[in-house]
Amino acid sequence: MSAESTPDPAIPGPGQSRPTGPGHRGKGRRRRPRTGRRKALLVAAWSAAGIVVLGGTGAGFLYFKLNGNLTSVDIDAALGADRPEKADNGSENILVLGSDTRSGGNKKLGGGTDDGTARSDTAMIVHVYKGHKKASVVSIPRDTLIDRPDCTDTDGTDHPAADGVMFNSAYSTGAACAVKTVESISGLRMDHYLEVDFSGFQNLIDDLGGVEVTTTEDIKDPDSHLDLRAGTHRLDGEQALGLVRTRHGVGDGSDLGRIQLQQAFVKALVDQVKDIGLLGNPKKLYDIADTATKTVTTDSDLGSVNSLMSFATGLKGIGPDKMHMVTMPVVYDPADPNRVLLEKTKADQVWTALKNDRPIPKSATEGTATGEAKGVVNTGE
What we know:
Strand content: 15-25%
Largest sheet: 7 strands, mixed
Helix content: 25-40%
Strand order of the largest sheet: 3-16-11-4-5-6-17
Radius of gyration: 20 Å
Shape: globular
Mean pLDDT: 77
Structural class: alpha+beta
Order of helices and strands: EEHEHEEEEEEEHHEHEEEEHHHEHEEEHE
């Protein structure tokens, strides 16, 4: 079925990598927004993971096509009422995970073991402040040793509590249990859940036409297939994925250094997404929408195109200059330098600030373990 055969043109820019015709709203079409300007789909992509959501207007065949791409999980039903309270001031917390699944399209992307299991290479708590004009992002190191609570996941599987395990292991217990683990660490209610898989992230960067970054030193990591000389580069999907996953090619080779690269890349991505000229390229616009909706798994409240569009529209004013990015306060484990431990006193400063919708104080991250890759990727700020 061709998109041209659909009479409803409400979604701008349909078109697909397969040869399907565009069912677009051209200059001569009758429907126009009251403002006299056409609305475009807003693709807000925050990291490896970071966060990829879709905003705009749409209905008809293309709406159902995009809606059918989405995967969602009912976290609220799985976790029940024994959770932190929702904020009543309009602020929101979103848990964003980048999926390290070793199956399907992710097998060929390198790194890790090819056992089909799921792990998270990227975990971020995104706190959107009241008014949705700014955000704080707290990266959670995957190598942090934590006490994981018992949990029943969305498929009904029971997972017993476990003490002193890597945070990364929480992801393998499923989305709901990952949320419960983060809530138990932070005391913050996660209002939404977004998971981005590796192969989808790579495709999305390619659909966007790449992302430009400047590296201040050479980065070479055969594990993540990344080989960059110092200088300015427009990274394609494979290179971007390599950058947000590399840990041995730069700095001290730690997960903390990788987080610093991820945070710099997320800011570059958010900065460039808003400047992409898509109104004149309906096929590219639809390709991005199609890839984005295939890439994410969401909580059930965001499990429709309309919900994602509304959510994304509420975030469109948050540029990289309005994002404060930190790493959860940790210290190196004296018993194992490859693991880190939560620095509870300083972490409590972070959680208290976010719970009260206040900026994270500088003192919360002073003197904590941070890695050695800060400034290696320069986004021009």
